[in-house]
Automatic annotation (TrEMBL):
It comes from the Bacteria. The gene is bioH. Substrate binds at residues 20, 81-82, 143-147, 230. SUPFAM superfamilies: alpha/beta-Hydrolases. Monomer. Pfam families: Abhydrolase_6. This is Pimeloyl-[acyl-carrier protein] methyl ester esterase. It is found in: Cytoplasm. It comes from Thiolapillus brandeum.
């Protein structure tokens, strides 16, 4: 399985991984801000955008192996949402490939459990799964709206998100199903902290999918952008870029 990538800029390597149903275009505004300071590789997840899809690629380790094959030999990895799950697993499997890990609006576990209330109710994702079968376009549009719900400048951010999202081929339905299964089923809370990899987390203070209360339950450095929702790199692009610069300078 071959994953589509986009490489631009010069400087230390920075890898960007998008979230469920998205594609590499959503990163473009941030890429344009940072590409004079970093060599940026943006990877499209399996079956998303122009990346190919293998029906046997359903586990987190399958997705992680595909991304590792497409990634630079060593980089700062920044994983947004579902991409953050993959980055966490990759750091455990291949810590030598990491200068640092940045989890953006992501979590080790996306659904609530008796001892883990800082997540989504399982029913939210299950509803997306059932609606996906009936109308892929409508389901993804609703998911886009949920990502900016409650955030500052939500209308402008949603328009930007839609514009960038529609610039690339739509994700394949089997890949969307598999991605939802990962969000529903993966729990990395007991994953050992990767040796030698500095951990950083950037959360949105108004995120409806990854509650900011999660901040005190994450290892490493955590920053919360108060007015941001689930896509802080779009709604608060300059602030995100500044935080990434700051963390990269201390790697």
């Amino acid at each position: 399985m071959r994953l589509a990538t986009q490489v631009s800029g010069q400087g230390p390597d920075l890898l960007l991984l998008h979230g469920w149903g998205m594609n590499l275009a959503v990163w473009q505004p941030l890429v344009e801000t940072l590409e004079e300071e970093f060599r940026i590789t943006v990877v499209e997840l399996p079956g998303h955008g122009a990346s190919s899809w293998d029906p046997g690629c359903r586990s987190l380790d399958h997705w992680t192996a595909a991304v590792l094959d497409a990634a630079p030999s060593r980089a700062i990895w920044c994983g947004w949402s579902l991409g953050g799950l993959i980055a966490q697993r990759a750091a455990a499997l291949a810590p030598e490939r990491f200068s640092a890990l940045v989890g953006m609006a992501t979590s080790p576990c996306f659904v609530t459990k008796p001892d883990w209330p800082w997540a989504m109710e399982t029913s939210v994702l299950e509803r997306f799964a059932s609606e996906l079968e009936a109308d892929q376009v409508r389901t993804l549009r609703r998911f886009l709206a949920l990502q900016v719900q409650g955030a500052e400048n939500s209308r402008a951010t949603l328009q930007l998100l839609r514009t960038e999202f529609e610039a690339r081929p739509a994700a394949r339905v089997p890949a969307l199903r598999a991605g939802l299964d990962l969000l529903l089923g993966v729990d990395l809370r007991n994953l050992p902290e990767p040796t030698g990899v500095s951990m950083h987390w950037l959360l949105g203070g108004r995120d409806q999918l990854v509650p900011p209360a999660l901040a005190s339950h994450l290892p490493g450095r955590v920053r919360v952008i108060r007015g941001a929702g689930h896509a802080p790199f779009l709604s608060h692009q300059e602030e995100c870029a500044g935080i990434l610069r700051e963390w990269a300078a201390n790697v």
